[in-house]
Amino acid sequence: MKNVLIISDVNFWEDSSGHRARLKALITYLAPLVNLTVVNTGPAPKGIEERLQSEYPAEFHVLNRKDFMSSNGYGRRLEKLMGYREFDVVIIEYVHSSYFLNYLNGEPKIILDTIDIISERAEEFKKFDHSDATIYELSAEDEREILNVYDHVIAICGPDKEKLDNMLGPGKVIQCPHPHQVTGHTIRSKVVNISFVASAYLPNRDSINHFIRECWPAITTKFPQVRLTIYGTVCGAVEPSANQNILLKGFAPDLAQIYSEADIVINPIRFGAGMKIKNIEALAHGVPLVTTSHGARGLEPVVGKAFLMADTPADFIAALSSLIENHRLREQLSKAALQFISENFTAGKCFAPLMDAIDNA
Predict the structure, then answer these.
(1) Measured between alpha carbons, how far is 235 from 196 in angstroms, rounded to an integer?
(2) pTM of the predicted model over 0.85
């Protein structure tokens, strides 16, 4: 078995956002197949390493449980922790953690899991006047220079792979979408609950507040029996509304329960980057979904077949109205969504290109 090291600053043991779910899925897949070591920068709760090692057949370490450190501080902690250990493959989560490459032993194959193309994300934020909200910002030229250091770069969806292929040339980029297990739910005859599930990430906050302002009054006027239920840490950022048909549930750990209560799921996301993991979750649960063209990145082949797409408020209202009024359409979308996910988004299929790269190290 290959010796593989994952280095990340993502506190994946918390289940409150897509990027955490992504890393958790990667660890779940790799742990039985390789000799896996996962190093997290921290901070982290006491006893987290022992807890994780009881859940996964892997080795876990936290560099600093209590505080944040400089990149040099984290690098020296990694050197001290690893000693003379060498790995066949090292996977870095996110380009901003590339500084760890300076502290590795031997000559491992190095792989970057991009999650997002950072230069593209920065441009998207600027389009919506949020350039001051980007945590990490890189020009396309600087990002290209860093990505070229890696043996392989993982793209999370087809559009990202195309962009990265153009940036880096053929052969370097491998595509590994986010996997999800299929869990179908009954499609009820009447729509009562339209749901939105999200973290407090800025594009999510923007999307739900824009939807409430521009779309929700028309929906509740036409369908007064329908409520909007919002889950996740995004609830703390929902702007006050006079409409009483909005229920803020906050963080809920049981996704199956959330989707079993939902008749329709929305993701009116307007900007950001990468594949929207919350859309994969909705499709995997077979709940009718309405999202934007931005939210549909990587899912383009089944637009109109497994979910509906709408960008303007008028189109979003029309799409929701058609679903609320048409039980058969909701059933058709549910069936197509479950089939699409089961055929294309199993962990084995999503991570097969990565496993091939590891086996060839």
Answers:
(1) 10
(2) yes
